Amino acid sequence: MKIFTCRDRFEDMMTCIYDAWEQALVYGHEKIRVQREPIYQPSMFDEYIHVSYDMEKVQKVIRSIKSEIGMDAYVHVYYASLSDQEDALQIIYNFLRVGFAVGDAVCRMLGNPHVIRMIELKRKVGNESHHFLEFARFTSMQNEVYICHLEPRSDVIMLVGRHFADRMPSEHWMIIDDNRKTACVHPKDGQMYLRYLTDEEFSTLRKTEDYEDCYTDMWRGFFRAISIRERENIACQRNMFPIWKRKHAVEFTEKP
């Protein structure tokens, strides 16, 4: 078995799919697998081939998906590439095998197990990004830039950023993924972009959570004021707002 591996980034994954597909035309799809790095427990009898990012191959894969399968299929692939699920890349690969065989009907083939897994993955990522639209908390830094810290399981900060780019177009803001050390940066009246942070940059930006603006206490007070103690339902609250998502929510942090 030939296992093609790559870094956990969309461009690298598309390059990995290109190289794996090229080999599959020679050896057959059943003898090819794709997997994101890191590989925690490599198999003794499989051949591992690392694939590095190649923009030309990325563009070819994207163009082929859009033209031969359709835009809906491309959206499914993009969302799935953001998932934290270990076999997400293999799910994408299997989905594309079906897609290139049947065309734009693939997203409607609800009886196909590969399509079902892709739809489930896309829904999971979409739900998580939707949740963080509500859970994102921005802090104003000297009334110049707004900074928000998140720790999502899937790589959804660009999806979250798209929402705020529409609603805060004339503000400098930044959404930081503390798990991946990446940032969605939006300059005032400009286009947002993804930035991979150095250790020094990330260390500096983490300190921004120690700052409090004029709305911090007001938000905590509002949160306490609307709560009816006699009707508190901790189990329901944790179901709607899980504990792992609360780390950067100001209403659940105590004032230092």
What topology emerges from the helices and strands here?
Elements: E1 2-6, H1 10-27, E2 32-36, E3 47-50, H2 55-69, H3 71-81, H4 88-102, H5 113-135, E4 138-141, E5 145-150, H6 157-167, E6 172-177, E7 182-186, E8 193-196, H7 199-206, H8 216-225, H9 234-240
Parallel strand pairs: 1-2, 1-3, 5-6
Antiparallel strand pairs: 4-5, 6-7, 7-8
Word description of this protein:
The chain has 256 residues and is of the alpha/beta class. 46% of the residues lie in helices and 15% in strands. It has helices at residues 10-27, 55-69, 71-81, 88-102, 113-135, 157-167, 199-206, 216-225, 234-240, and strands spanning 2-6, 32-36, 47-50, 138-141, 145-150, 172-177, 182-186, 193-196. The strands form two sheets. Strands 4-5-6-7-8 form a five-stranded mixed sheet, with helices on both faces. Strands 2-1-3 form a three-stranded parallel sheet. Strand 7 and strand 8 form a beta hairpin. Helix 4 packs across helix 5.
Keywords summarizing the entry:
alpha/beta, three-stranded parallel beta sheet, 9 helices, 46% helix
